[in-house]
């Protein structure tokens, strides 16, 4: 019985941690950018309205240079987690294609977010 209670407590803590992670700016950016990942990795041939909405939302998360660097790193990780390779021409044109001026969108898996 004690083991069962311990297991339940561990699972509850893990679920709470996962849930709170998505509510961070990084989690929000990754969730939003998930709408763009199929396009950026070449699985979706056209840019969607949902992706453009996500790009606009991500831009709102980066009012400072430090925020931009942190969110950029989160987006690079999102691309790595998606697997495959990044179509750099699609990634470079993503913000402009959505009518958004931002440099937070990574264009490769080795993108340097510190610049």
Describe this structure in words.
The protein has 115 residues and is an all-alpha fold. The protein contains six helices and no strands. Helix 2 packs antiparallel against helix 4. It is globular and about 45 Å long. Residues 4-9 and 11-22 have low confidence and may be disordered.
Topology summary:
Layout: H1 2-22, H2 25-33, H3 37-40, H4 49-60, H5 65-82, H6 88-97
Helix pairs in contact: 2-4, 2-5
Q: How does the major sheet shape up?
A: none
Number of helices: 6
As residue ranges, the low-confidence spans are 4-9, 11-22
Structural class: mainly alpha
Characteristic key phrases:
115 residues, mainly alpha, 64% helix, globular
């Amino acid at each position: 019985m004690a083991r069962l209670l311990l297991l339940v407590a561990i699972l509850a803590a893990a679920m709470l941690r996962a849930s709170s992670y998505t509510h961070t700016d990084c989690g929000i950016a990754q969730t939003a950018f998930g709408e763009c990942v199929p396009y950026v990795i070449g699985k979706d041939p056209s840019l969607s309205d949902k992706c453009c909405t996500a790009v606009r939302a991500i831009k709102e998360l980066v009012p400072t240079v430090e925020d931009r660097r942190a969110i950029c790193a989160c987006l690079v990780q999102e691309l790595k987690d998606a697997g495959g390779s990044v179509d750099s021409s699609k990634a470079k044109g993503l913000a402009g294609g959505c009518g958004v001026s931002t440099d937070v969108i990574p264009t490769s898996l080795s993108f340097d977010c510190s610049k």
